[in-house]
Design goal:
globular; binds cobalt (II) ion
């Protein structure tokens, strides 16, 4: 018999400036409490905020878990279709291909989008929601989302990739976000 899930739970998204976003996530085991429910709630939270990825630190859990749904980043007729997937305890094995820029944003840093340079391909080892192990290579927008979310479980944010001058120009805006002085249409938790 299927296990009944509790009603939808939407987590507030942790905003820039909170120390949980700077922690290196801990690995989890199959027995992590209510893991199935947690993953379902993370998908609901990501969809409500129209994100294409969400990492556990963004909902205040410093663990090595993130989800992605890159399907909406692709158009009909594109060679690739995107991917909806859960990544548990992932490790990047290698990043290859050309380095390309894309204007990234982040649910924890609303209102800021900046060009970030990353490799075209990423190969990683990870477990899915059933704790089945995979070793796979991803490319294009899917790789981009994975690299962004992977950074989160390493305590890194996309603004860390910017040149110091660009970052210092954003300092005021980032400070405002951490104080909750920002217009956003999903629930957030601000550190200050
Ligand atoms: Co992000």
């Amino acid at each position: 018999m299927a296990k009944l899930l509790a009603p939808d739970m939407i987590f507030p998204i942790i905003a820039y400036g909170d120390s949980v976003l700077r922690k290196v996530g801990e690995e989890i085991t199959k027995d992590y409490p209510n893991l199935t429910q947690l993953i379902a709630d993370m998908f609901d939270t990501m969809e409500r905020s129209k994100g294409v990825g969400l990492a556990a630190p963004q909902i205040n859990k410093a663990i090595r878990l993130f989800i992605i749904d890159s399907q909406k980043m692709y158009d009909e007729g594109d060679k690739e279709t995107g991917l909806r997937e859960v990544f548990i305890n992932p490790t990047i094995i290698e990043e290859t291909g050309k380095i390309w820029a894309y204007e990234e944003g982040c649910l924890s840093i609303p209102g800021i989008r900046e060009d970030v340079y990353r490799h075209e391909k990423v190969k990683l080892e990870y477990y899915d929601q059933n704790f089945k192990k995979h070793t796979k290579e991803f490319s294009g927008m899917t790789a981009r989302v994975i690299q962004h979310e992977y950074d989160h479980i390493e305590g890194k944010l996309f603004v860390d990739h910017l040149k110091p001058l660009r970052r210092s120009l954003l300092k005021g805006k980032l400070e405002k976000i951490s104080k909750g002085i920002v217009s956003v249409d999903y629930k957030m938790k601000f550190p200050k």
